[in-house]
């Protein structure tokens, strides 16, 4: 894509670059007014986008069907308005009906799929031998199966981790640390990717490298 | 250990964070200005997604669920763009929606990089995707989390009334072919949070719809068990996954450009971890904490 030519687009690119510098001034220097201003601007603009989106959604999904004669959509409007009684102590009880409704629906829906997806199939996958698989598949199978047993043993709190029970719980602890290390490594990769993205953006705005 | 030598070790263990950040910031510039072209190997999970899409055709409909915000563009956008390009090259029909309020910006970013996707008011040429027939953008699907994802799987027409432009979905030819999860050949979900699991639970577990994950690197390791269990058919690991996919498609996009910077940043991180640890162990006996 060519570098923006429209004045508004150029302005947008430069505002983005300046805000990026303001935000990074916190870690590259210290907390300062520019950082705070950028931080508040970020929150305000996010809120503004959310409000605009909410209005559009209500217009498309509620007002339009209502105008078309589908009166069922009065119910979600009433339920939604009931939630706004939450800040008022005297009328707060009204919002609790909606909250209980939302929690009940959410829990019921998630449990419906979770039993199969998160429990049954995960256990089956962990204990099913990779017949005809490569040596690496077998290594992974043994590692996952034994690791599963060792880590569960570490979280057994009804028996003290001493005697014959010391070794499996200790191995379980190290395997947990290994897993958390991988997770942390991925977190670092994510943060570095974010930073590299911002550096790339700055270089693009300053025309040091081509616009994407 | 002498006082001067001890002082050096303490300094190493307590390097000012600003020195680290400035080194990182400046070092990251180099690979963008002078690309190092470090090799990128193809992961099994990336290849799996590529091979799956290779088998899709013009009769198949794919959902792209954008559950990553603008802040995750450096990680997720290269993969999203590469996967969309691949779908377009296979003439696969596409439905795009998202659950984050800034999804429109991500949609615009994808569209700018995949120019074949045309809005309703744009002229359609050969090879382009006509809006409403070849692809549809639903826009933001408001709050509701897993409940909404489940509702979309059960009955799309009950859950959504209009597309991004306010056109009733009953008037959109592509959406007339879709009733729910059973009519979808693949869901590509781009996540920074929990939505990937919602699709696995509500679309794959209940309807058997294949799921692919294009998420931030942190999510990757959490999804590996689901990939191994066959619940997820392929995954792209952040920007690295995007770079791998670009390589499979034969072009060097933003993912490829960013991989050099990522490698350099990792090397610097490892360097500072080693320095910090040397300093820590060398001065441990002088510390009370």
Report on this model:
The complex is a heterodimer of chains A (212) and B (289). Chain A has 212 residues and is mainly α. Chain A folds into 2 domains: 1-69; 133-212, no CATH class. Chain A is 77% helix and 0% strand. In chain A, helix 1 crosses helix 2 (33-67) and helix 5 (135-154) crosses helix 6 (166-205). Chain A is extended, with a radius of gyration of 27 Å. The termini of chain A are close together. The relative contact order of chain A is 0.06. The model of chain A has no long low-confidence stretch (mean pLDDT 91). With 289 residues, chain B is of the alpha/beta class. Chain B has a single domain (44-255), classed as 3-Layer(aba) Sandwich (Rossmann fold). Chain B contains 12 helices and 6 strands. Chain B has helices at 3-13, 17-33, 44-54, 73-89, 103-113, 145-154, 156-159, 173-176, 195-207, 217-228, 238-249, 254-283; strands at residues 61-67, 93-98, 135-140, 186-191, 211-215, 234-237. A 6-stranded parallel β-sheet of chain B has the order 3-2-1-4-5-6, sandwiched between helices. In chain B, helix 11 runs antiparallel to helix 12. The longest helix of chain B is centred in the last third of the chain and has 30 residues, at 254-283. At the A-B interface, helix 1, helix 2, helix 4 and helix 6 of A face helix 2, helix 4, helix 5, helix 6 and helix 9 of B.
Provide a short characterization of the protein structure:
The complex is a heterodimer of chains A (212) and B (289). With 212 residues, chain A is mostly helical. Chain A has helices at 7-28, 33-67, 74-83, 92-127, 135-154, 166-205.
Give a quick set of tags describing it.
heterodimer; A: 212 residues; mainly alpha; 2 domains; 6 helices; extended; B: 289 residues; alpha/beta; Rossmann fold; 12 helices; 53% helix; 12% strand
Q: Please tell me how large the radius of gyration of chain A is.
A: 27 Å
Q: What proportion strand of chain A?
A: under 5%
Name the pair of protein chains with the most residues at their interface, and give those residue counts: A-B, 55 and 63 residues
- Determine the number of helices of chain B (DSSP H or I, runs of at least 4 residues): 12
Which segments of chain B are poorly predicted (pLDDT under 50) over 5 or more consecutive residues?
none
Number of domains of chain A: 2
Number of helices of chain A: 6
List the domain count of chain B as a whole number: 1
Largest sheet of chain A: none
Examine the coordinates and then state which fold CATH places here, giving the name of the CATH topology of chain B: Rossmann fold
What's the story with the biggest beta sheet of chain B? 6 strands, parallel
Give the CA-CA distance, first to last residue of chain B. Answer: 19 Å
Which CATH class of chain B applies here?
Alpha Beta
- General form of chain B: elongated
Outline of chain A, from the CA principal axes? extended
């Amino acid at each position: 894509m060519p570098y923006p030519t429209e004045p508004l687009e150029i302005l947008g690119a430069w505002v983005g670059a300046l805000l990026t510098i303001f935000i990074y001034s916190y870690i590259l220097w210290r907390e300062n007014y520019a950082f705070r201003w950028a931080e508040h601007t970020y929150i305000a603009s996010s809120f503004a986008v959310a409000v605009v989106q909410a209005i559009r959604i209500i217009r498309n999904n509620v007002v339009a069907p209502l105008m078309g004669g589908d009166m069922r959509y009065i119910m979600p409007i009433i339920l939604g308005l009931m939630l706004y009684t939450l800040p008022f102590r005297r009328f707060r009880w009204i919002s609790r009906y909606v909250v209980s409704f939302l929690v009940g629906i959410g829990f019921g829906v998630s449990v419906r799929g979770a039993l199969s997806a998160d429990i049954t199939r995960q256990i089956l996958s962990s204990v099913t031998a990779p017949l005809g698989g490569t040596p690496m598949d077998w290594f992974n199978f043994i590692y996952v199966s034994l690791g599963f047993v060792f880590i569960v043993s570490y979280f057994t709190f009804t028996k003290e981790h001493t005697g014959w029970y010391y070794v499996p719980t200790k191995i379980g602890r190290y395997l947990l640390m290994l897993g958390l290390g991988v997770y942390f490594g991925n977190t670092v990769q994510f943060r570095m990717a974010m930073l590299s993205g911002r550096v790339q953006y700055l270089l693009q705005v300053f025309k040091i490298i081509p616009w994407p | 250990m002498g006082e001067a030598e001890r002082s050096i070790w303490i300094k190493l263990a307590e390097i000012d964070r600003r020195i680290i950040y400035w080194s990182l910031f400046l070092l990251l510039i180099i690979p963008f200005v002078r690309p190092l072209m470090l090799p990128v190997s193809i992961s099994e999970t990336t290849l799996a997604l590529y091979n799956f899409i290779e088998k899709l055709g013009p009769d198949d409909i794919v959902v792209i669920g954008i559950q990553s915000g603008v802040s995750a563009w450096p990680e997720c956008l290269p993969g999203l763009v590469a996967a969309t390009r691949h779908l377009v090259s296979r003439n696969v029909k596409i439905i795009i929606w998202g659950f984050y309020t800034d999804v429109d910006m991500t949609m615009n970013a994808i569209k700018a990089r995949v120019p074949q996707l045309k809005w309703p008011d744009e002229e359609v040429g050969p090879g382009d995707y006509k809006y409403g027939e070849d692809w549809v953008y639903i826009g933001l699907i408001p709050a509701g989390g897993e409940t909404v994802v489940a509702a979309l799987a059960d009955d799309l027409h009950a859950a959504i009334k209009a597309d991004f432009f306010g056109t009733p979905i009953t008037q959109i030819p592509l959406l007339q072919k879709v009733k729910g999860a059973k009519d979808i050949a693949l869901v590509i979900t781009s996540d920074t949070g929990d939505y990937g699991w919602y699709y696995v639970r509500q679309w794959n577990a209940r309807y058997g719809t294949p799921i692919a994950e294009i998420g931030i690197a942190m999510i990757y390791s959490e999804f590996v068990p689901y990939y191994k269990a066959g619940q997820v058919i392929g995954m792209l690991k952040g920007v690295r996954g995007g770079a791998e996919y670009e390589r499979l498609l034969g072009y060097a996009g933003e993912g490829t450009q960013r991989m050099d910077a990522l490698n350099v940043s990792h090397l610097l991180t490892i360097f500072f971890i080693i320095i910090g640890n040397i300093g820590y162990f060398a001065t441990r006996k002088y510390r009370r904490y």
